[in-house]
Design goal:
The protein is mainly alpha-helical. Helix content is 59%, strand content 6%. The strands form 2 sheets. It has a two-stranded antiparallel ribbon with strand order 1-2. A two-stranded antiparallel ribbon has the order 3-4. The protein is globular and about 50 Å long. Belongs to the recoverin family.
Amino acid sequence: MGNSKSGAVSKEILEDLKLNTKFSETEIAQWYDNFKRQCPTGRISKLEFEGIYKKFFPESDAQTYAQHVFRSFDTNDDGTLDFKEYIIALHMTSTGKTTRKLEWAFSLFDVDKNGYITKSEVKEICAAIFKLIPADELATLPEDENTAEKRADKLWKFFDKGENDRVAEGEFIQGVLENDDALRLIQYTPGK
């Protein structure tokens, strides 16, 4: 039986995904069949990914944020997402443990991929997040986070760092885990 449930998913990728996600062989095979229907080439381009994000945020400018999310998922830096990158991203962002989600969030904020986050990178991602927030929701934000710059400043203060300092992944995860406001500031949840 072995590979019969998994269709065209290679045994190596299937075993790797079973080890690194909570998905069963059957679920992975179903995801793969859907992925191949949607992406016959077996890859999602940055442009296709941006199109997917636009569907989730039709009233917002999702392009910049989608580009950062894509960069964080494209772990081999080839400019596309293959099935494995897609499933691991799906797992980390939807069903993974909080620490795994924060590891992904760190990779999102680490724009230059050097293993650290700077205040300018925090500002860049906060600006992208802000573009997702509809105007009517922007009007309801607290005074100290009603612009991307203020949100970035507020978030940066949680790490107790100077303007030109940097934050390592462990510091980022610990800082966000220790403060619910920091957790809220690193994301945007529609309708919240």
